[in-house]
Amino acid sequence: MAKRIDVEDVNVFYGDFLAVQDASINIAPLSVTAFIGPSGCGKSTFLRVLNRMHEVIPGGRVSGKVLLDGEDLYGPGVDPVNVRRTVGMVFQKPNPFPTMSIYDNVIAGYKIAGTKKNKSTMDDIVERSLKGANLWEEVKQRLNRPGAGLSGGQQQRLCIARAIAVEPSVLLMDEPCSALDPISTLAIEDLISELKTRYTIVIVTHNMQQAARVSDRTAFFNLAGVGQPGRLIEYDDTATIFSNPKVKATEDYISGRFG
Amino acid sequence: MSVATAPASPGSIRSELVGARLPSWAPYGSAVAAMGLAVLLRTLLDWTGWATTVLAAAALFVIVLTAWSFGIEGRRQAKNRFATTLIYASFLAAIVPLVLILTYIGVKGFSVFSADFFLRSMNGVTSRMDGGGVYHALIGTLQQVAIAAIIALPIGIFTAIYLVEYGRGTFARIVTFFVDVMTGVPSIVAGLFVYTFLLLGFGMRPFGAAGALALAILMVPVSVRASEEMLKLVPRDLRDASYALGVPKWRTVLKVVLPTAMSGLITSSLLAIARVAGETAPLILLTGYTASINFNPFSGDQATLPMMVWDQLGKRSGTTSNDLTEARAWGAALTLVLLVLILNVGARLLARLAKPKTS
Lengths: 259, 359
Prior knowledge:
The complex is a heterodimer of chains A (259) and B (359). Chain A has a domain at 5-95 and 169-255: 3-Layer(aba) Sandwich (Rossmann fold), CATH 3.40.50. Chain A is 35% helix and 25% strand. Chain A starts with a strand and ends in a 5-residue tail after the last helix. With 259 residues, chain A is an alpha/beta fold. Chain A has 11 helices and 10 strands. Chain B is mainly alpha-helical and 359 residues long. Chain B is built from 13 helices and no strands. The radius of gyration of chain B is 29 Å and the shape is flat. Chain B starts with 25 loop residues before the first helix and ends in a 5-residue tail after the last helix. Chain A binds chain B through residues 51, 53, 56, 58, 81-86, 88-89, 91, 93, 95, 97-99, 108-109, 111-114, 145-146, 148-149, 159, 162-163, 166, and chain B through 168, 235, 237-248, 251-252, 255-256, 259-260, 262, 356-359. Chain A: InterPro entries: AAA+_ATPase, ABC_transporter-like_ATP-bd, ABC_transporter-like_CS, P-loop_NTPase, PstB-like. Chain A: Residues 5-248 form the ABC transporter domain. Chain A: GO terms for molecular function: ATP binding; ATP hydrolysis activity; phosphate transmembrane transporter activity. Chain A: This is Phosphate ABC transporter, ATPase subunit.
């Protein structure tokens, strides 16, 4: 199920503005990769390139290759809708659909897309996804209540359940804990280590301890200055990045000397 | 300076945090003083009528309160008093005419209200006779506004969806521009347009649906503008969330954006309907007027409430008929106001039902 991602010389643009320059990275299946770096360095932008969400923004375009198990996501004839079904995403701010119940939020991927499934299959998917997101015990009595009524941490786990309900191969997480308190953050981090056994996970985070705790490999992004494109500076095993980085800028960043 | 800290009894030591304040009755005191001064001026200067005195009292009130505050509380508080007074005055200036109009229509119109008034047409009722009612006009207004809504609301909402979800570049800017221009089109121009194309062009006699067409033209820009604002309120997060699940764009619009904005769209639609329900100018050209009931909006003259007001006021001739026709005109006007009121209240109720629930 889980797939590998190989990015080759990708440039990412907003209109004429080059946001990320010449990024290449190889992400192994069933691993957790963390993107760290100062604000504006393009790590979230780069993450959105991996499931073709970048082009949703007006003027957003990408050059280069993003290979998912060897298949180019930006190749001719590739449908971004199918890409996003394979590469799921969880956002910074919990964003359950306000018009839907908890149950409907979990199966939103099928329901909104118009995929018909019978009731018992749906029930199974909801239970399995909520269990997968460690939310089942908390909400199983109130599946028909609105999803927006949950706490922030529960909403974020609901969003994770929604993302894994459509059974993607890769799960992208864009600062999934930045709006959450420490206890909810811990719950999400535990969840990430469990999900790792089934999905390839890429996570953007501003919290370096979090990167150190949850990820196998870490990529450090930086930008030379305001208005300059972001670059992938260093990519290595998390332990190496945090104990023995090869590039001076990485060491400065993780030791808090700038950024 | 003594360091021994005897607990400062309140009032004995002036803290820097406590400034001088006017007593709480200061605004009322100023009002009384201003009125007194105005009356004094009136007697001194031999003003006749009360308009000048009232205006003078209002101006004096602002001056007295601001000056008093400036003397005791200082510059910042004086500015605050001045601005507060002006804001309350603007509020009153906006609300007083509104309340007066509604009360006047209510009092004048209610005198003719009876069950018969809503169940009778004006057929055979001359200007010197008592009786008659708004039934024929109510039918016309409801039918024409309904037809206008059926034509205009889908166009308006679909245009808004285009502008918010799909429109990029020159064409979208042109559409926005023309919608803005259309918002400012005088209603009589919309009427003339339909009159030239439909009635003159095809040699038709006035009929109800022709009026509805002109109302639809007036409704589209209002509906586009209001719906656009409502759709823009849907957070981009939700669209992103839907795209990230691998949902095509059109289904995202249909299943996420529209349901989330539904409450707002209902409000905007009913407000657009209320906006055109009282239009008169195009109907003069297009629907004609008849005192009898016409259920068919596609053939023959059809009465509407605004036209009935116009017709009844136009038939005043002698003293007796003055009272009778005027009373019926007020009655029709009140019926129209109530209709719009019901639409507004209905809009709010529906919107509340469609609102996303959080708990």
